Amino acid sequence: MKDLTPDAATLDAIETASRDEIEALQLERLKWSLAHAYENVPHYTASFDTAGIHPNDLKTLSDLAKFPFTVKQDLRNNYPFGMFAVPQDQLARIHASSGTTGQPTVVGYTENDLKNWGDVVARSLRAAGLKRGDLLHNAYGYGLFTGGLGIHLGADALGLTTVPISGGMTPRQVRLIDDFKPKGITVTPSYALSILDEFNDQNLDPRDSSLQVGIFGAEPWTNAMRREIEDAFDMHAVDIYGLSEVIGPGVSMECVETKDGLHIWEDHFYPEIINPETGALAEDGEMGELVFTSLTKEAFPIIRYRTRDLTRLLPGTARTMRRMEKVTGRSDDMIILRGVNVFPTQIEECLMATPGLAPHFQIELSKPDRMDVMEIHCEGQDPSAGDALAARIKDSIGISVKVSVGATGTVARSQGKAVRIVDRR
Ligand code: DLL
Q1: Which residue's alpha carbon is at the smallest distance from atom 6 of ligand 1?
Q2: What is the pTM of this model?
Q3: Of 101, 188, 116, 107, residue with least CA distance to 147
Q4: Could you report the per-residue pLDDT of 29-41, keeping only the tens digit for each?
C-alpha cells in the first residue's frame, strides 16, 4: 500500500491548532448555537425553559451538561419541519433518514450549512489521502440519504473528479472501477464486500485494481474487517462517521497515516459521552453513548443529541482534535441473549477470525419455546467451519449459538447499510 499521508501544508489551520485555541472557538460558537436554537426553535425554547436554563447560563464548555438532551422522539414529534430554525426561503436542501419505524427524520441545510458540510467532508477525504485531481468512485446512495450527496459536496470542495455512481448495479460498479481507474472509493463496508465478490465473478483480481483507499462508514465495521478488505484490495481502509441529525457523513474521520480511531471535527460538532442509563457525563476514555451539539448549523441546530452510538473519547494524535474510538454498535442493535449483551460487531470479529468462512453474515433471533435462540447465517464451502465459529463465539462472548453455513449467495447482500439482525421473536 502506498503512503498517502497528506502534506501538512494542505491541512486547515484548525486541524493542528492548540487545545486552547480549539476550546476558545468552541465556547464562542456554542454560545451562538444555544442562543440560535433557543430563539428560533419552539422545541428548544420549551425544553430549556422547563429545565430552568438559559443560553446565557453557559459560561464554560462544561456548563453544556446543564442543558437538556434531544432525542429521536423529539424530532418525530416535530415532523417534518418543526425543528428548523430558519424560514423556508433560507433552506437550500432537505435530507431524511429512512428510520426503522417508518417515519423519517427530516433535516435541513442553509447555503452556509452546505458550505460547512462540504468543508468537513473535504477535510475527511483529504485525511484519507485524496487530493485535487484524484478520481473518486462514490458508491454511497444518492438521494434523501446523506451519504451520496454529502460525500459529493466534499469531493467538489476538495477538487476531486467524482464518479457519482450511487449504490446498486454491482456488475457496473466493477466495470467502471476497471475502466475509469479511481484512486478512492466511498461505500458502506458491507457493500464493498459485494463489490469484492463481483470482482472475483468477473475474474478480475481486486488487488490489481487502481484503488488505493476505501472510505467506509454509515454502519459499524471492525478492525478485523479492515484487515480483510485491505488485504483483498491491497488498499487502505479508513473509517468515516456521521449521522443525518448532526449533518451527515464527515462528523469524524480516521486519518490514513494512523488508522487509530476517528478525529471529530470539533470546530463544528461538540462531543460528549454519557452513561446511557443515567445520562451522567462520562470522563474522556470511558465507554458510553455519544452525544453531539452542533456549533455552526443554521437550519437545523441540534443540542445534546443522543446518538445511541457507543464509543469513547480519546486524545488527538495525527490531528489535535479528539478522537472517538471505532463505534462498537448502537444501543438499539445490542442483543440481550439469555442475559448476555452482544453486538453484531462481536460476531463479525469471531467470523473474521474463523478460517473457511466468507465475511458475509446475518443474525437471526427466534424464540421456538421460551428460550431466545441466536442463529448466525454465513457462507463457506465446509460446514465444519460453522462448528469452529460456534466454538469461538462460546469461548470469547460466552453464548451458545447455532451457525448455518450456506453456499455463496445465501446470505442477503447489501447495497447500502447491511441488515445484520432479523428478529423473529
Ligand atoms: O449514515 C451518514 C454517513 C454516510 C456516514 C456515509 C458515513 C458515510 P444516517 O443514515 O443518519 O447517516 O445514519 C447514522 O449510522 O448514528 C451510526 O449508528 C451509523 N454510522 C454512521 N457511520 C458509522 C461508522 C449516515 N463509521 C447512523 N461506524 C449513526 C459505525 C456508523 N456506525
Answers
A1: 147
A2: 0.97
A3: 188
A4: 999 999 999 999 9
